[in-house]
Structure formats: C-alpha cells, structure tokens
Amino acid sequence: MKKNILIIGSGGREHALAWKIKQSGLVNELYSIPGNPGINSLCIHLDIELADIDGLKQAIIQNDINIVLCGPEGPLADGIMDQLQDLVQSHKLILIGPNQQGAQLESSKSFAKEFMSRHQIPTAAYRTFNHQEIEAGCLFMDSMNLPIVLKANGLAAGKGVLICETLDDAKTEFRSMLEGKFGDASSQVVIEEFLQGIEFSVFVLTNGEQYVILPEAKDYKRIGEGDTGLNTGGMGAISPVSFFDEDMIEKVMHQIIAPTINGLQADQIPYQGFIFFGLIKVGEDPYVIEYNCRLGDPETEAIMPRLNTDLIQLFIACQEHTLSQSMISIKTDTAATVCLVSGGYPGAFEKGKVISGHEQISQSHVFYSGTKLVNGQLVTDGGRVFAITSLGKSRQSSVNKSLKTCDKIQFEGKNYRKDIGFDLK
C-alpha cells in the first residue's frame, strides 16, 4: 500500500530527503512544511505553522498522512514528536524522529556526555559549568593541556563549539559564552579535552532496538580553505570516507553504536529515527565528539545519492520491528558536496540576491537551502544557499564536477570552498 509522507524542514537536508523519497514506488503523495522552492517542487506544500500543533494534526488526518519525517533538530528538541504521539495509535502514524527525551542526545551536551560516561562510550574527558561557576571552570582549565574545547550546552546551529589555542583565549571565550554569546544555548558550557585526529560521521536509522548503518561521510565546518576561519553549519562533505574500512566499522559498531542503542534501552528512552554519530579517529580508535538526533546537513546531501535502498521500506521496517532484516545497498561512487554560501557568512550577510544558472544543471544534484521565490524569481534567503552534489568514480572527479557546477550558478557575493575532501587520500 502506497504511503502519504510529510517532511518537516526547509534546508538542503530536507530537499535531499524529499528527492530520495520521491524515487520510492511506495510513495503516493509527498507533503512539506515549511519547505523551500526546491523541496516544494517535489512536494505539496502545506501552509501551516509548526507551532500550530492542532492545525498540523488536522492536516495529517485530512491528508491521510502515514509517515512524518522531521529533518531539523529544533522541532525535535521542542517535542514535536511527543505532540503527535496520540496519532500513532489512533491513525497508525509512523514518526521518524525521536521524542523530546531522546532528542536531548543533541539538545544537551551535558546530557550526552553523561550518557556516554554511564555507558562506557569512548569520548573526550569533560566537565560542565554554569554562570555561577566561572572561577571553578577557569581553575579546571588551568589543569588541562592545550588546545581547550568549549561547547555551548544547547543548540547553537552547529556554531557553538570553540577550539581555543591559548589559556587566556579559553578563559575569555568561556566567560563570553556564559554571558550569552550563544544566547540560552551557552547558559551552560562543557569544557572538554581536545582530541587530535580526523573527524568523520556515521549515521544509523533505528527503532531503539534494531538499527541499520547508512553511508558515512566527512563534513567540512570551517569557512576557509584548509579548514581555517570561523565555524559554519557546514561548507561541504565527502562520502565515502577512505579510512572507514572493515576494522574501523567493527570498532564503531561494537564500541559506539551498539552501546548507544543498548544505553537507550537501559535508560528507558524510546527512540525512533536517525542518530548521527560525530566521531574522531584518534590513532586507530574512534571517539564520539557529539551526537545529533537527525541526519547532518550537508552530509545528507552527500549520502542520499549513494543510497540505493528505498527509504520508505526502511521507515516501515522501523515501525514493524523488522529493521534488522533490512539490507542496505550503497553505490561505490564517491559523492562530493560543495555548499554555495552568501557573502559574509557565517557572519552578517545580505539576503534577496537574484540567483541565475541553477536551472541548466545536468551533471550535479542541486539541493536548495537558503532560497525563496519573489515574484517568480529565485533569490537568496540564508547563509547557505545551495548544496551541490556530484557522483564520480574518484574523490577528485566528483569534486571537480561539483566545482564546475558551482561556477555556473551565480548570485552576488557567492562564496564556496574549492578544497572539499583535501585531507583524504
């Protein structure tokens, strides 16, 4: 029986998910809230505010929606899935995204670190401090090796992590964060030891008991080439990751993924949806840097084109507890995603810049992020404007395809990194 699906979100991640889901033979109608011009070209847009839960429930019932997929972390942290829970029983609704309790893996760094400590999941040493503990935090940093990592405890759009090279900088930034640099997100700050290694990301879909591993990826957070400058929401991604071989897969499964799923069960935290494991390879061992309670952006734009398996089949298997019987098929091609961003991003930037050249692209996938239509004209409407993904037989060929596509798309102030994947062999 074909399904009606609602995708919640408005970024490149949700466009890539909509693009992938649209290919399923199990889809009847695809709906979006709030969407963007790219998403809405594939979906029926529902003009409903996410805060209007009664209106959302009514739309789900009226449109006979069978699956709700929430892409971004904000609504999950706010408990949107808890508010839809009654429809799981009354209308057999499938929810892909954790409840508010499970979303704390991402929405609270201290919750996540305590969870990892409790379940012996390898991660960096840490302590958490609030604004009444500034002096204690500074004393703690006196005992640490440099550099020092500071993390806003709450959600900060991927920008709430600072790596401080000197003790003075660490103490200054620590005070600034507790005084509101990231708003409420940094009302508590996690001080963490710095792990030297190379970062990568692993993604699973789980029903809290069973799981399947999706294609892995490596993203590039810094605005400047060579990983320099300010942190962003992500400037690009590569999939696969060359060192994610059989030995590393085994370590990640047995040391990190399985203990996480077992820990959710032990702590009686129901969980259905994606878990993003932000990992770092230190020597030959993986450590957890962070959890996310959803897929990454721009990693989703890199892993969805490599995934052959029908996502809707996996969502149904989640609900029916047959996920462990599901086989994942992945293309061997390399996917390279390069983000086109507004001039000035991640600082102040202007919106409303007219976009051209985006409609004549054939060799790459163009996933829309910060865009909107004004009088039929596509214009910029965010820091990250597009995620450009190309497939190739090698990392360099796929990167080159994406860079050529980036050259073809024009808007005032356009910026992008030309070295995505530079640190992988």
Structure description:
The chain is 30% helix and 27% strand. It has 425 residues and is α+β, with helices and mostly antiparallel strands. Among the domains are: 3-99, Rossmann fold (3-Layer(aba) Sandwich), CATH 3.40.50; 125-193, ATP-grasp fold, A domain (Dna Ligase, domain 1), CATH 3.30.1490.20. The strands form six sheets. It has a five-stranded parallel beta sheet. Strand 10 (198-206) and strand 11 form a beta hairpin. The longest helix is centred in the middle third of the chain and has 21 residues, at 246-266. The protein is globular, with a radius of gyration of 21 Å.
Task: Summarize the structure in short.
The protein has 14 helices and 22 strands. By secondary structure, the protein is of the alpha+beta class.
Salient structural properties:
425 residues, alpha+beta, Dna Ligase, domain 1, five-stranded antiparallel β-sheet, 22 strands
Secondary structure blueprint with pairings:
Layout: E1 3-9, H1 12-22, E2 27-34, H2 37-40, E3 44-45, H3 53-62, E4 67-70, H4 73-77, H5 80-83, H6 85-90, E5 94-96, H7 100-107, H8 109-118, E6 126-130, H9 134-142, E7 148-152, E8 161-164, H10 167-178, E9 188-193, E10 198-206, E11 211-213, E12 218-219, E13 222-224, E14 228-231, E15 236-239, H11 246-266, E16 273-282, E17 285-292, H12 299-303, H13 311-320, E18 334-341, E19 365-368, E20 371-374, E21 377-380, E22 384-392, H14 395-408
Parallel strand pairs: 1-2, 1-4, 2-3, 4-5
Antiparallel strand pairs: 6-9, 7-8, 7-9, 10-11, 10-16, 12-15, 13-14, 15-18, 16-17, 18-22, 19-22, 20-21
Helix pairs in contact: 7-8, 9-10
